[in-house]
Amino acid sequence: MEKYEVGMLARSKAGHDKGHVYVIHQVDETYVYLIDGSGRKLENPKKKKKKHVQLICEKYELSGMDDVAIKRILKLFDKETGRN
């Protein structure tokens, strides 16, 4: 069983946002709450079932971060992986 933690990166496996990379903001038994700093901000995270996301083995400390810092993390990840 995979361990979902706050601050980990996750890629959507299903839905209209398939392939989109998010940062996990919250975790409960069934769902993860995802943010990306632009469309899904800290005050309005995307609720997605755990089975519909793929974890990426990178974790960041979210305490004190704002939406701009989240966008920066995801932009750097895209640059490192050659996605953009």
* Uncertain parts: none
Q: Determine the strand fraction and express it as a percent band.
A: 25-35%
The CATH topology comes to SH3 type barrels
Along the chain, the helix and strand elements come as EEEEEH
The tally of strands reads: 5
Side by side, the strands of the main sheet go 4-3-2-1-5
- Distance N to C terminus: 31 Å
**Domain tally:** 1
Give the overall silhouette. globular
Instruction: Specify the CATH class.
Output: Mainly Beta
**What is the CATH architecture descriptor?**
Roll
Measured on Cα atoms, how large is the radius of gyration? Answer: 12 Å
Largest sheet, if any? 5 strands, antiparallel
Which terms summarize this structure?
single chain, 84 residues, alpha+beta, SH3 type barrels, 1 helix, 5 strands, 18% helix, globular
List the helices and strands and how they pair.
Layout: E1 8-12, E2 21-27, E3 31-35, E4 46-49, E5 53-59, H1 67-81
Antiparallel strand pairs: 1-2, 1-5, 2-3, 3-4
Mind explaining what this structure looks like?
The protein is α+β, with helices and mostly antiparallel strands and 84 residues long. It has one domain (8-81): SH3 type barrels. Helices cover 18% and strands 33% of the residues. It has 1 helix and 5 strands. The protein has one helix at residues 67-81; strands at residues 8-12, 21-27, 31-35, 46-49, 53-59. A hairpin with a 3-residue loop joins β2 (21-27) and β3. The protein is globular. The model has no long low-confidence stretch (mean pLDDT 92).
